[in-house]
Amino acid sequence: VPRVAFGCLAVSEKITIRTNHVLHNKLLDRRQMVIELIHPGRPNVPKEELCKRLAEMYKKDASNVIVYGFKTAYGGGRSTGFGLIYNSAKSLKEFEPAYRLRRKGHEIPLKHDKNRKQRKEHKNRMISKRGTHPEGKKKKKKD
Predict the structure, then answer these.
(1) Residues 8-24 pLDDT 10s
(2) Where would a tag sit more exposed on the chain, N or C end, judged by fewer CB atoms within 10 A?
(3) SS3 for 49?
């Protein structure tokens, strides 16, 4: 077991992965599961390492594995999160949200080219023009 200098706790490289509630979702072409990690002596486990280990367990490509939502238990050494293993890269790109694909390293274009304030100002300008006559608002005559 490798040790860390300065009298810190020993860091072990061993982690245990347990998958619970494994569901084969045929509509979304994936397996989804709750992942329980036991990592004594480590603060947490990198997601890349976790994806590789899950891909080995389920005999899939590591690029089709998505893990997210990990919470470390009080006191450390144990974490739980959620994992998705897609059967193909096509279904991964079709069903996975864009922000998680960007985290994974896929090139996904942003939905908006302007920043939020510019979009809101433009929306409010368009609201004031909606329903107006091309020559401007005409006042009603009082009888």
Answers:
(1) 444 457 899 999 999 99
(2) C
(3) helix
Distance CA 36, CA 44 (A): 12
Q: How far, in Å, are 118, 120, 124 from residue 130 at the CA level?
A: 18, 15, 10
Contact 16, 27 (CB under 8 A): no
**pLDDT-based confidence at residue 2 (cuts at 50, 70, 90):** very low
Cβ(83)–Cβ(65) below 8 Å: yes
Q: How far apart are CA 68 and CA 28, in angstroms?
A: 17
Contacts of 73 by beta carbon, 8 Å cutoff, 6+ apart? 79, 80
Q: What are the helix (H) ranges across 23-96?
A: 47-58, 89-95
Phi, psi (5° rounding) for residue 118? -65, -40
Tell me, rounded to whole angstroms, the distance of Cα 11 from its chain centroid: 28
Tell me the pLDDT band of 3, cut-offs 50, 70 and 90.
very low
Environment class of 58 (CB within 10 Å of its CB; exposed 0-12, middle 13-18, buried 19+): middle
| Single-letter residue type at 51 | C
The alpha helices in the chain, defined as continuous H runs, are 47-58, 89-95, 98-104, 116-129
